[in-house]
Amino acid sequence: MLGGIYALLGIGLTLIFGIMRVVNFTHGELYSFGAYMMFMFVMLLHLDFFLSLVLATALGVALGAVIEFVLLRRLRGADIDTTMLVMIGAWIAMQNVEQLIWSGVAKSITSPFPSAPLVLGGISVAWSRLFVFAVALLLIAGTYALVDRTRIGRAMRATFQDGDTARLMGVDIDTTYLATFALGSGLAAAAGALLGPVFVVTPGMGDLAALKAFAIVILGGLGSILGATIGGFLLAFIEELGAGYLSSGYRDAMGFALIILVLLMRPTGLISRKDRIG
Amino acid sequence: MRRLAILALLALLLSVPLWVGNFYVLHVLIVTGIFTIAAMSLNLLLGYTGQLSLGHAVFFGIGAYVSALVSLGFAVHLAPDWLVTLDPQPVWLAMLCAVAIAGLCGWAIGRVSFKVRGAYFVIVTISFAEVARLVALNWDELTQGPMALNNIPPLAVSLPGLDEFDFIGKVPNYYLVLVAAILAYVVIARLVHSRAGRAMIALKENEPLASSVGIEVTRYLVLAAVVSAAIAGAAGALYAHYIQIVDPNVFMFLYTVTMVIMVVAGGKGTLAGPIVGGLIFGLLPEVLRSFAIRPEVQWVAYGVLMILIVYLLPNGIVPAVASLWNRAGRADAPAAPTTGSSPGRIVP
To answer: Rounded to a whole number, what is the largest CA-CA distance in chain B?
Structure first.
C-alpha cells in the first residue's frame, strides 16, 4: 500500500522536475494539504468519504495551478537555484499557515471501511489499505494514459525532450507547465487524502513525504514515470526490509541511504534517460 | 576610507557588551553570531563555487556532537564485544576535534556528492543531513538519542601565569564568538583571494571552460567543501558549548534553510553578504516576535520575505547597495573636472 502512495508522490514530483526543471519543495505541503482537506470535508462538513476524496484532489490541482501561476510563471528561464529558493520560501510559509489554521495537534479521520480485515488464504489485509492501494494504482494508470494518449500529454513529453523546440513547434509552454504542475500537485494531494484516513494528519507530515519523493525520483531517474512507479514500490519494500532487519528507527533512513548509493553507482537513476541535469 | 569603516565596525562590535546591558539581547547576538559563522562557511560553497548544498547543517551538527562527546567522554560498542571508550577531554581539544572531524566529513561527503551537479547535488546533500539526523536520533548509546546530550562543559582556557578562565555567561561568550567570526572571515577572505579561490570562481562561472584550461574541478570543489565544513563544524562546537545541550534537531533542514536565506539575502559570493544577511535574519525573528502574536506568523513572514528577496533583490542586499553606491559615485563624476587624474573615477 505504501508503495502505491510513494509512487504517486514520486510520479508527481518527477513530472514537475523533468518537465519544468523545478525542484518542488512544496510537494510535501500539497500532500498534507490533501490530507487536511480530507479532514475538513469528512470530519467537519460531514460529506461523503468518496466525494471528499475527489474534492480534496481537485483542490490540490487548483492549488498547484495557483502556485504555478503566481510564483513560477515569472521565474521562467531563471536558474534552478533561484526557483529552488522560492519554493523553499513557499514551503515554509505554507506549512506554517497550515499549522496556524489547524494547530499542531494530530487529527484523525474516520474511514467508512469495516475494521475487520479481509483474510485471503493466510494473509490478512485491512479493507482501508486495500482501497488506498486500488485507488493509487488507478491514479497511476490514469496518469500514464494522460501523458501517453492525450494532446496535453504529448505537449508535456515534447517539452520534456526539448522545451525550446517544442515552443517553436507551436506548443503552448505556459499551458503545458500549468497543466504539469497542477497534475503533479493533484497527485500529491490525492496521496495525502488517501493516506490521511489510514494514519493521522499533522502539519509536518509533508516533510518526510517530500524527501522520500525526492529519493524516489532519484531512484527512478529524472522525468521517468515508469522509474518513479518502480522506485516508489522499491523504496517501500526496502524500508520494510530495513525496519525488519536493522531497526525500525532506521526505517526512514533507508530512502536516503539508497539515494546516496544510487548516485554513487548510477548517477542517472536505475532506469536511465539520456538526460541529466548539470 | 574603507579601512576606516572596517575599524569603526570592529570598534562597534567590540563595544557592544559595554552599552548593551540586556542579557537577552546579548544571547540573541551570540546565537546570531554563531549562525553567521555557519552562513559564511556556506557562502564559500554556494557563493564561490556555485554549489547549492542543502545539507550544511550536517557539518554544524557533527561539530556540535563531536565537541560535546569529546568533552563529555563516551563509551560505545562498535561491535558486541568491542567497546570504545573515551575519558572527558579539555574543551579546547574537543573543539579542535570537532573542526578536524567536520572537515574530514566535508572531504568524504564532497568526494561523493561532487559526482553530480544541480538538482541531484542538492538532493544528495539533503539526504546526508537526513541520514545524520536519523543516526543521531537512533544511536542512543552514543548520542542519547532524543534525550539529548546534557551538561556540556563550557570552554575553559588556562594560560600560563593566569588563572583558568571559564567562558560562562554572555559577555565572555560574545567575545569568543566575535573572535571566531573574525577568524573565519579572515580564513575565507584569504582563500577566496588566493589562486584556489580564483579557480573556484572560475568553476562557478563556467565549469567546462575552467576544466578545459586545466583547473582540477573535483580537487577545488573538495577543498572548498573541507574548509567550509571545518568552519561550520567550529560554529557547531561553539553552539554546543554555549547552549550546553545538543539534540538531534541540530541536523534539521530548517537550520540549513536559515543559513541559505542568510547567504542569499545578504549576497552570495560577497564576503560581507553572509554577515549582513546573518545579522538581518538572526535578529529578524526577535523583531517579529515583538509584533506577531504567534510563532507561525513569524515563519510565514520569513517564507514570504524569502520569496520577495529572490524576486526583488536576486543578487542580494550587499551587491544591490554596492551598485547604488557606484551609481551615486558615477552621477557625481561628470561634475568633477575631467582633466588630469580624473578624481571622479576613484570609486571602483
So the answer is: 84
Range of the domain at A153: 2-110+125-204
* Residue A159 belongs to a domain: yes
- The answer to whether residue A277 sits within a structural domain is no
C-alpha cell at A144: 500514464
ipTM of the complex: 0.73
Q: Give the pTM.
A: 0.77
Our CA-based measurement puts residue B129 at a distance from the nearest CA of chain A, in whole angstroms, of: 9
User: CA A82, CA A77: separation in Å to the nearest integer?
Assistant: 10
Q: Could you count the other beta carbons within 10 Å of the beta carbon of residue A212?
A: 28
- How many domains, chain A? 1
Q: Does residue A171 sit within a domain?
A: yes
Distance CA A63, CA A106 (A): 23
Answer yes or no: are the C-beta atoms of A189 and A37 closer than 8 Å: yes
- Residue B337 in 3-state DSSP? coil
CA distance B63 to A198: 39
CA angle B96–B98–B102, rounded 5-degree value: 125
Residue A65 belongs to a domain = yes
* Residue of B105, B130, B143 best to disrupt the A interface, most CBs of A under 10 A: B130
The answer to whether A89 contacts B307, with C-beta atoms less than 8 Å apart, is yes
**Residue from the list B119, B296, B303 with its beta carbon closest to the beta carbon of A17:** B119
CA distance A78 to B340: 44
For residue A90, list chain B residues with Cβ-Cβ distance below 8 A. Answer: 303, 307
Q: Do A80 and B119 touch (CB under 8 A)?
A: yes
Q: Which of A63-72, B87-96, B338-347 has the highest mean pLDDT?
A: A63-72
Convert the pLDDT of each residue in B107-118 to its tens digit.
888 887 777 777
